[in-house]
C-alpha cells in the first residue's frame, strides 16, 4: 500500500503526540503561510522553521542558521517564545540539517538571520499560541476570548483554571491554523528587546556544546593535508616514505578540492589520530608545479592598483549629474588615494570538517555557515543528487564569512571517498592563515570639489579583486558592492557624483570577510568625507548632517553628539567621527584619542550608536558591536596578509598579531529605538571604526592617515 507522509502519520497515531507547525511561501505571496507539518504533503511543500510541542509541554525549535558567536541560537528562540508565550527555559534548540526546500536560505551571512525571518517567526509563534488557546477553550466549552496564554499555560480568566501546553497539543494538532493573526505591539513584549542571558552560554561554559572538533562518529579516521601554497599550483611529485613511518599513519594520497571555479591540489596524510596525521604531514616532501601563472608580491600588487587608478576610468557603478564638467572647470579639487590591506579571517577555531562518503550519498558534519551552498557544490563535484549530500551543523568557533565557503567540506568528502571511511580533516593555524581566501586588498582614488561650503562634485574609483569573479567566473560587470558602506541619503544632496570600479585581477583567492566591502569602502568614503569637511571649513559632524537630511540619520547624529560630548571637545584631545551603512543598519562611531606621558597616541574612548530598527536582544547587539570594534582595531593597526613570490608570508599570530585586552579602549554602545524594519547586527559595527580612528588622529596631530594598517605607536 502506498502511503503519503500525511496518511502514515494519521494511521500510526503520531498526529496525536505533538503540535508541529512551519511556514512556507505560496507562489507570488508577500507573506508566508502557516500550516501543520502533517499537511505539508497535501500542499506539496517542505516547511520552514519547524516548531514542535510535545505532550510534556517541551518546545523544540529547529534553528535553520549557524551559531558562530553572533547570537542566532538565542535570537530565533527569543522571537518565537515571545509570541508563543513560553519561557525560554522550556525551549530546546536543535540545529536543522541543510535543506533549503524545508528551511529556506540557510546561509548565515550578510547579517541576515533576524532581518529576513523575524516576521514569519513571530507569526509562527503566534499561530501556535492561538491554536493552543482554542484547544483549551474547546475542552472547557468556553469562549476563546475568555482565555489567554502565559508561561507555557492557557488560563481561563473567569474560573482561574489552566492547562499546560502539553495537555493541549493532541487537540490543537486537529485544528486548522487560523488566518489573520494579530501580532503583539512592541510595548507589550516580555522577551523581545530585553537583555536576556543567552541559551548557549551554559553549554559553552560547561563544555557540552559540540563544536566541529568535538564531533566524533564511529570508525572515524583523521587527515591533515599539505596544500600547495599557491592556489593554482599542482602537485608534481611527492615522497611519503618518512610520513608512512610515523606511528598511526594509515595512508598518503594526492587530493584536489574545489575553490570557486578552480582547484587547489595537495597531499593528504590519513592516520588514527590528528596528532599522527599532522606529524606525517610534516614529514612529507612535496615538489610543486607552479608554472603558468604569476607569483606576485604585495608591493607589485599595490603598484598595479595605483597605476590602474591613474590610467583607467573603470566600469560605471553609479552616476548622477555631471561631475566631469565640475572637475574640469574647478579651480581647486581634492584628489587623494586610500589603501587597505588583504586580511585573513583569523577564526579562533581553525577549519575542520568530517565527511563520510557511502557510495550513493555523503554525510558531512562541521562548523558550517552555508549548508545549502555546500549541498549545491558537493553534489555537482561528486555527481550525487543534492538530497544525498547531508549537511549537519555544529557550533562554530568564529566564522566571519570563511566558513560559508565550500572548499574544506569538499576536501573532506573527496578524502573519505578515496579511503572508503569517515574522516575528519583538521587544518592547522598555518594552513588557515596561508591558504586564503582573503579579504581583498583595495585602493581608492577619491576626488571632490567644494562650493559654498558643500560638496559640488564627488568621484570615487576603486581597484581591487571582485569576489563575484571568483564565485562565478563572470566578468564585465562592476563590483556590485562598490558603494557598500556609503549612506544612501548622500545621493539626495550630492547632485554630481560618480562611483566607478576599475577591474583588477590577481591569482590570489579572495572572498567575504566581516562586513565584506563595507570594511574597506567605509575607510575610504568616511576618511574622504572628513577631508571634504576640512576643505569646506565645516565641523566634520555638522558637515555630515548637512549632507544627510534623512530623519533617521539625523536622530543618530543627535545621539552621537549627545553621548560623546562632541560640542565640548577640549584642547589636546582628538575626536573623529564616521557613519556607515551595510545590511540595512546604520552605525555611527566617535573615537577620542590623546597623547600619553611619553607622547604616544592612545585611544581613550569609543562611542557607537547603532540603528538596526526592530531588534531582539540589546546585550547581543552590544556584544557584536564591541567585537566588531575590536576586529576593526586589529585590521587598522595590527595585522595584514602580505605576499612574497605569490605566497602568503604571515602564517600565525606571531606575525599576524591580534589586539590584546590592554589595547582595547572603553566602548559605549547605544541602540536607537524606533519602529523601522529589522536590520543586520553582526557586521555593521565594523566599518566605521577605522575612519573614525584616523579622523581622530588627524584632529589631534594634523597627520592624515590614508593607508592601513598603520603603527599607532609611530604616529
UniProtKB/TrEMBL annotation:
SMART domains: Ald_Xan_dh_C. InterPro entries: Ald_Oxase/Xan_DH_a/b, AldOxase/xan_DH_MoCoBD1, AldOxase/xan_DH_MoCoBD2, AldOxase/xan_DH_Mopterin-bd_sf, N-heterocyclic_Hydroxylase, OxRdtase_Mopterin-bd_su_IorB, TAT_signal, TAT_signal_bac_arc. Residues 206-292 form the Aldehyde oxidase/xanthine dehydrogenase a/b hammerhead domain. It comes from the Bacteria. PROSITE patterns: TAT. GO terms for molecular function: oxidoreductase activity. Signal peptide: none annotated. SUPFAM superfamilies: Molybdenum cofactor-binding domain (SSF56003). This is Xanthine dehydrogenase family protein molybdopterin-binding subunit.
